[in-house]
C-alpha cells in the first residue's frame, strides 16, 4: 500500500471551537476514505507530565497509518522524544465568543438533551450554575479572570510550564509553532473556507468534506451541539474581558491574518458569517493588512511540499 503524504496528522482540538462538528465529519470521512481516525475519551487533561507526553507520543506514533489523531491536548513536540513530527491542524475562534460558549455549556449543556452538563459538572452548586455572567466578570470571579481566560494560546505554545502564564513568551512561542508545525490553523467564523483548504491540502482525509457538511441531515446533527441558554454580557463586561484576554486577541488576529493570506493565495473569497453572540463594535479589531502576495517565487504545490518537509 502506498501511503498518502503526510500519513500522520494531529488535530489537537481547542475546546469550544467547533471541534465536535469537525469530529462528526471526520467519522464519516474516515469510513469513506479508509484512514485511521484515532480519538481520545480524555477531555479534561490538556497538560501532561514528561512521562505522560512520552507515553502518548508512543501510542500515537504506533497507530496504523495513515492516521488522524484528535484530542483536547496542548501541543506535543514529537521530535523532542525522538519521534517523527506529524502535521498539525487546528481551528480557533473569537476568544470572547469561545469563553462565553464554554461558560454556558458547562452549566447548561447543548440541545442533545443528554444532561451531559450535569455529568460533566456534578459538584457545581446551584448558585454557581446560575451565576450571572456580568457578575462573574465584573466581580472578578476566578472563572472569569486570568489565568482561566488564557486558554487558546497554550494549545499552540505547548507543554512548557511558561505556556500557562499569560504573557509575551507564551504568545511568541505559540506563533512560532503555528509557523513551523501547523499545516493550517483556521478560524471558526469562516468554517466553510477552512474545510475547503483542508480538502485542498489533505485530500486523502478531507476530500468531499464540504458536501457532507452542507448536507441537511448532517446540519441537523451539527445543530444539536449548539450550546443552550447563552446570553450576551453588557458592553462594559465585554470590554473588561477584552482587556484580560489581550494576548489571546493578539494571537487570534495573527492567526486570522495568516489564514486570510492563505485564502487569497489559493483564490478563495471570504464567506464570513456574522458573529452570533455580540455586535462587532463591542471589541475593536485592528485593520487587516492587504499585503501583495508574490506568487511568482513558488507555486502552490511547492508551497505545500515545503510545509510537509518542516
Automatic annotation (TrEMBL):
Transferase listed as a keyword: yes
Q: Which domain of life is it from?
A: Eukaryota
Do you know which InterPro entries this protein is assigned to? Heparan_SO4_2-O-STrfase (IPR007734), P-loop_NTPase (IPR027417), Sulfotransferase (IPR005331)
Tell me the compartments it is located in: Golgi apparatus membrane
Q: Name one Pfam family in it.
A: Sulfotransfer_2
Q: Which residues form the signal peptide?
A: none
Question: What keywords would UniProt list here?
Answer: Glycoprotein, Golgi apparatus, Membrane, Signal-anchor, Transferase, Transmembrane, Transmembrane helix
Per the record, GO CC terms?
Golgi membrane
Q: What is this protein called?
A: Uronyl 2-sulfotransferase
Native species of this protein?
A: Loxodonta africana (African elephant)
